[in-house]
Amino acid sequence: MSNVVHVDDSAPSTGRLAVVGLGPGSPELLTPQARNILERSRAILGYGVYIDLIPRELLAGKQVLASGMRREMERCNQAVDLALAGVDTALVSSGDAGIYGMAGPCLEILEQRGVLDQVDFEVVPGIPALAAAAALLGAPLMHDFAVISLSDLLTPWERILRRIDHAGRADFVLVLYNPRSRGRDWQLAKALEVAAEHLPPETPVGLVRNAFRSGQEVSMWTLATVPVDRVDMLSILFIGNSQTRALGTRLLTPRGYPLE
């Protein structure tokens, strides 16, 4: 019996599909792995705002497909189509692609279309927005923390409130993504109200906007004085737990190491 495997050279091979985390926005925080994947890709897809974060030299000579908000599944399908056609493709997210990013939707599309075994798929991690913003604040995440998005486009608002309530009861440091937009201008105030059921009004709160991007802002507040009207979708809030303290313009949540 022959062990020779005959390969049909005329059969098209699929391209690689990489979902790439770009980090918070600064080119210096784009990882070498992400840069390498972008350099090798023949097509790059993403939300237009995120495409604008990519250094121009990495886009030169590539097929670049930028689209607007709420077209995530369309982008995923386009990326899968390109990969199936043999094109090495990068689908980009800001921050880390596996944290509120495009890794999940892309895997869902691959599963739905039954091509998980046909596409060379990988997720390229990036520095998440919460890590970048936390670095600007000092050390707010030295102990257990919970990350909650206030966007109720895909998650029922009552479920979001329950999560905030449970996190407050458990004394987690709380990180709030997508805190406020023009169409969702009341949810943040309600979220702070729920957090205040478990924390005193003087609890320190860090507010970071445009972390490691143009227009970066870092400010310190208390739970009772958060300037809700100044918060938008480019902001991340860090609500301290019972041990968090403000050190001037820094936040510290002690890990508990003995100092002597």
Plain-language structure description:
This protein is of the alpha/beta class and 260 residues long. The chain has 8 helices and 13 strands. The protein has helices at residues 32-40, 48-51, 56-59, 72-84, 103-112, 129-137, 157-169, 187-195, and strands spanning 16-21, 43-47, 63-67, 89-93, 120-124, 138-139, 145-149, 173-177, 204-209, 217-222, 235-239, 245-247, 250-252. A 5-stranded parallel beta sheet has the order 3-2-4-1-5, sandwiched between helices. A 5-stranded mixed beta sheet has the order 7-8-11-9-10, sandwiched between helices. The longest helix is centred in the N-terminal third of the chain and has 13 residues, at 72-84. It is elongated and about 60 Å long. The protein starts with 15 loop residues before the first strand and ends in an 8-residue tail after the last strand.
Q: Determine the strand fraction and express it as a percent band.
A: 15-25%
Task: Enumerate how many helices there are, as a single number.
Answer: 8
State the order of secondary-structure elements, H for helix, E for strand: EHEHHEHEHEHEEHEHEEEEE
Tell me roughly what share of residues is in helical segments.
Answer: 25-40%
Radius of gyration: 21 Å
Report the mean per-residue pLDDT as an integer. 93
**Main sheet overview:** 5 strands, parallel
Q: Which structural class is indicated by helix and strand composition?
A: alpha/beta
State the end-to-end CA separation: 74 Å
How would the global form be characterised?
elongated
Strand elements, count: 13
Instruction: Name the strands of the widest sheet in spatial order.
Output: 3-2-4-1-5
Question: Which consecutive residue ranges, at least 5 long each, have pLDDT under 50?
Answer: 1-11
